[in-house]
Amino acid sequence: MTELSEGESASADRPTLLVTLTGSDRPGLTSAVLSTLATRGLDVIDAEQVVLRGRLVLGVLLSAPRDHKSLKEELKALAAALDVEISVKRGVGDNEPRRKGRSQVTVIGRPLSAAGLAAVAGRIADTGANIDRISRMARYPVTAMEFAVSGADPEVLRTVLALEGVRQGLDIAVQDGGLYRRAKRLIVMDVDSTLIQGEVIEMLAHHAGRLEEVAAVTEQAMRGELDFADSLRNRVAALEGLPATALDEVYAAIELAPGARTLVRTLKRLGYQFAIVSGGFSQITDKLAAELGIDYAQANELEIVDGVLTGQVVGEIVDRPGKATALRQFAQRSGTPLSQTVAIGDGANDLDMLAAAGLGVAFNAKPVVRAAADTHVSVPYLDTILYLLGITREEVEAADADTPT
């Protein structure tokens, strides 16, 4: 339950009454209880209700009447009539305020076992923090739970829970639980192996008959073993002589990551802005941006002369530092503070971008990226990012039902 603001009517020594109802949920239960309480002229200080698999739990905190025993008897009779259980407990004051150090902890599993959730709760307790509320964000294709936690430094929680997530095979994100988490954000995303499945340069190399050598260099670059700019020039050189029509064929064959359209569609509905930045090629990314309604895009440009790839790139290469620079430029253009940016990527050339963003998310990433990012997602569904932003699967489905695509 939420606490009152300073200056509100419930003082620390004011007598209060906590009424709790549990029973099979059906229309009218909450109304019946509140209507009974209304006959006594009581003030509602706080209330909270939850339904789990048809089981209702309702709690109402009220100013205590002088004759609370007669109210207790009246509620006892109501409980018998409604076939529910109602308890009444007299006390003093409001709820204790949530302690400082508020965090939102998102736990994602496929599946999410009771043992895994118990381990997460245990590590939170080990830090001295309290779990104030748990709510479900999604039930499929992953199970996602959100914990409202208070009483611990978010960085301490992040470190402790990252280790437990590895042990339990769970994705765990820890974010500051302040007001700004609800603000509209700028999402900046890598393209190859993040927004789309696979690497465009390898698809082009397949058309050029040079796939194996190019794929080997790509893998080394994504692990951070090679300088990205040098590796890109070497790989692009292998495309020399390839007809530019191959770009159209590659674009037609591109498969988006599962959940990509849902992620973009949902966040655009909410007023978020979207950007893609890629070490790949503008001939592909510009089309993706137009197709998905993405606001900003930046990538390398392949040189084409007389309808043929020359094996060169035009202009400055978008590499690891270049991606971070692009994120800052997108933030400036969109009027978004860096603290309200979210970067998503999978390779070593995304590291600077992930570090520069307010929230850096490693998506099915290489180990070096997982270790450096604020959080990681290891399931193949890109729309899982929505749960990190406090958006539930039910809200997404309801929006899609109201506005069919």
Report on the architecture of this protein.
Pathway: Amino-acid biosynthesis; L-serine biosynthesis; L-serine from 3-phospho-D-glycerate: step 3/3. Pfam families: ACT_6, ACT_PSP_2, HAD. Belongs to the HAD-like hydrolase superfamily. SerB family. It catalyses: O-phospho-L-serine + H2O = L-serine + phosphate; O-phospho-D-serine + H2O = D-serine + phosphate. The chain is an alpha/beta fold. It folds into three domains: 14-92, ACT domain (Alpha-Beta Plaits); 102-178, Alpha-Beta Plaits (2-Layer Sandwich), CATH 3.30.70.260; 186-373, HAD superfamily/HAD-like (Rossmann fold, 3-Layer(aba) Sandwich). Helix content is 38%, strand content 27%. It has helices spanning 29-38, 68-82, 114-126, 154-168, 200-208, 211-222, 228-237, 245-253, 260-269, 282-292, 320-334, 351-356, 367-372, 385-388, 393-402; strands spanning 15-24, 44-52, 55-63, 85-92, 103-109, 130-138, 143-150, 171-176, 186-189, 273-281, 296-305, 308-314, 341-345, 359-363, 375-377. The strands form three sheets. Strands 12-11-10-9-13-14-15 form a seven-stranded mixed β-sheet, with helices on both faces. Strands 2-3-1-4 form a four-stranded antiparallel β-sheet, covered by helices on one side. It has a four-stranded antiparallel β-sheet with strand order 6-7-5-8, with helices on one face. Helix 3 (114-126) packs antiparallel against helix 4 (154-168) and helix 5 (200-208) packs antiparallel against helix 6. The radius of gyration is 27 Å and the shape is elongated.
